[in-house]
Amino acid sequence: MPRLEGHCWSCSCSSRMKAKDLSSASWVSSKAEEMMSIITSVMRHAYGSLHSIRSANLIRRGLVLFTIGVFLALVLNLLQIQRNVTLFPEEVIATLFSSAWWIPPSCGTAAAVVGLLYPCLDSHLGEPHKFKREWASVMRCIAVFVGINHASAKLDFANNVQLSLTLAALSLGLWWTFDRSRSGFGLGLTTALLATLITQLLVYNGVYQYTSPDFLYVRSWLPCIFFSGGVTVGNIGRQLAMGAPEKPHND
């Protein structure tokens, strides 16, 4: 009998201990689920806020780049017209592209696209661009780019090949001085090729023309201008993106 009572007591005690352990485990599990739900909601809210901040920052940077592109297009196109490098038809409203009104918004859009692509490409390639990242360097880069455009309109060489080689050397010097990145060189070269192709199509369709063309329908130094312009706008876009929240990249 004592043995039986002891057995019953031990069974009841063990069952109470198991029940207590199960209740403790369920309480811990419920608290863990509650904490996980809180952490998930906080992370979701933080991600939504970060996404909205990134979107607003992207739009703001795009508008700044568009404005800079429009301003540079107005100044540089006026210089080319005054030096009779580019000629537009006299009709103003004869066709959709008979006037030069479309040049500023087109250049502004291109500047926004290129300027936003540069920091994205840097992040994608894992190549953080930290070479002379300051506004003073960016302003010097813009000054050199304007000087290259001024040289293309005002310098007189024996032939266009010498002028093209000179501007090509200046453009590469601009990239080496203010960029020196693989992504900058590749995207600048891509910009030059695409912009030159589009210009060839526009001149071929009679939208406007170049005096003394020597590279199909345009001047042979035109890709150098587009290359240096792409590098310049890319540096502006990188500088604008410095204060923006970016995705982490692998070194």
Automatic annotation (TrEMBL):
One of its GO terms (biological process) is cholesterol biosynthetic process. InterPro entries: INSIG_fam. Keywords: Cholesterol metabolism, Endoplasmic reticulum, Lipid metabolism, Lipid-binding, Membrane, Steroid metabolism, Sterol metabolism, Transmembrane, Transmembrane helix. The keyword Ribosomal protein does not apply. The keyword Lipid metabolism applies. One of its GO terms (cellular component) is SREBP-SCAP-Insig complex. Pfam families: INSIG. The chain crosses the membrane at residues 62-81, 101-121, 157-178, 185-204, 216-237. It is a multi-pass membrane protein. It is found in: Endoplasmic reticulum membrane. Belongs to the INSIG family. This is Insulin-induced gene protein. It comes from Clupea harengus (Atlantic herring). The lineage of its organism: Eukaryota, Metazoa, Chordata, Craniata, Vertebrata.
